[in-house]
Amino acid sequence: MDKPNCDIRGLALFLLVTILSYAGCCCISPSNEPVLLGKLSAEQLLERLEEYKARVILYEPDPEAIRHLQSYNKPLTIEVFFGSWCPDCREHLPPFIKVIQEAANPNISTIFIGVSRDKKEPAHLLQGKGVKFVPTFIIYRNGDEIGRIIEHPRISIEHDLIAILKERKPLPLKAP
After folding, report:
1. For the whole model, what pTM was predicted?
2. Residue 174, domain member (yes or no)
3. Residue 109 pLDDT level (bands cut at 50, 70, 90)
């Protein structure tokens, strides 16, 4: 009997995410939705953007990629520039959050930075970063930038991240 309840809950969650996705296709935030600016933790992001929670739950990262990230033994910092108003961020930040949560690697730290639609605020955090599109994931090792994922991952967030860590460029997108 428990299995049908799980299936119904999963279906309900899937439908909720689907409805929210279509409602969020427009780049204009509803007037009651604040534009998040500045540094946030993943927990703060999930508290303030309810839709992200459901997307985190639904995403299933590649287990092999998670094992690779769990075993990564060098300090790494990932700055994530995002717009709470941005459909691409709604699509790609929850999988990233899930990947980082499942990897649970103390060597990997993340900083989420909410930006304005024109990507000019918060100016002190954007200065010198060259962020033109969101989301932009900037990966640093020993304080040096080693790669970026801009707007859309080429394969998946976890595979593109691993390609950067292995100092390989992500594979090009496949032609349709």
Report:
1. 0.75
2. no
3. very high
Structural domain total, the chain: 1
pLDDT at 165 over 80: yes
DSSP string, 57-97: HH----HHHHHHHHT--S-EEEEEEE-TT-HHHHHHHHHHH
Cα-Cα-Cα-Cα torsion 12, 88, 33, 78, nearest 10 degrees, comes to 110
The two structure tokens encoding residue 27: 């780049």
φ, ψ for residue 83, nearest 5 deg: -120, 125
- Tell me which amino acid residue 41 is: S
3-state secondary structure at position 55:
helix
Q: In angstroms, what CA-CA distances link 133 with 39, 80, 92, 110, 151?
A: 17, 11, 13, 19, 6
Residues paired with 111 in a beta bridge: 79
Cα distances (angstroms) measured from residue 1 to each of 6, 8, 12, 15, 40: 9, 12, 17, 22, 41
Token pair belonging to 139: 């990966």
Identify the CATH number of the domain in which residue 158 sits: 3.40.30.10
Q: CB under 8 Å to 151, separation ≥6 — which residues?
A: 88, 92, 133, 134, 135, 136
